[in-house]
Specification:
The strands form two sheets. This protein has a four-stranded mixed β-sheet with strand order 3-2-1-4, with helices on one face. A two-stranded parallel ribbon has the order 5-6. By secondary structure, it is α/β, with parallel strands linked by helices. Strand 2 and strand 3 form a beta hairpin. It folds into two domains: 50 residues, no CATH class; 78 residues, Winged helix-like DNA-binding domain superfamily/Winged helix DNA-binding domain (Arc Repressor Mutant, subunit A, Orthogonal Bundle), CATH 1.10.10.10. The longest helix is centred in the first third of the chain and has 13 residues. 28% of the residues are buried.
């Protein structure tokens, strides 16, 4: 069973989940079931979020326990390499795999990212530089990319 905690961000409430030692989830809104508890994993995630929402790239990553298939985990590891203020396309991520991979398959993995912001799925954009979907809503994706001063195209 996961534990829950909340963070109030400039973009609204964020739900944090932990297995007791690592962060397992970060989503906008009120989500999930579990016991509310104060844990070091939550303290670290909240410190990361405090730094991030000041418009600064945090110089640490909270301990994560990313739950998903091998392919999804591989995509999420690539997301972790996208620098603050930069973007990457689904196709560029697909090209990181030695086997032929489609941008659509990458999109499916990106869309199932359990730890938003810290695993920066908001930094993934369409091939033409346009924004595509975001679980937190495109309005939040725009605000996050603006916070990071990233270059992107609006539709």
């Amino acid at each position: 069973m996961d534990y829950l905690n909340r963070y109030i961000s400039p973009l609204g409430n964020i739900t944090l989940t932990s297995d007791g030692s690592a962060l397992t989830g970060l989503r906008f809104g009120e989500y999930g079931e579990g016991r509310k508890k104060e844990l070091p994993a939550f303290d670290t995630a909240k410190r990361w979020l405090d730094v991030y929402f000041k418009g600064v790239a945090p110089d640490f990553t909270p301990l994560l326990n990313l739950r998903g298939s091998g392919f999804r985990k591989a995509v999420w590891e690539i997301l972790l390499t996208i620098p603050f203020g930069k973007t990457m396309t689904y196709g560029q991520i697909a090209a990181c795999f030695s086997a032929r991979m489609s941008a659509q398959a990458v999109g499916g993995a990106v869309g199932h990212n359990p730890v938003a912001l810290i695993v920066p799925c908001h930094r993934v954009i369409g091939a033409n530089g346009n924004l595509t979907g975001y679980a937190g809503g495109l309005d939040k994706k725009i605000r996050l990319l603006e916070l990071e001063k990233a270059v992107f195209l609006r539709k």
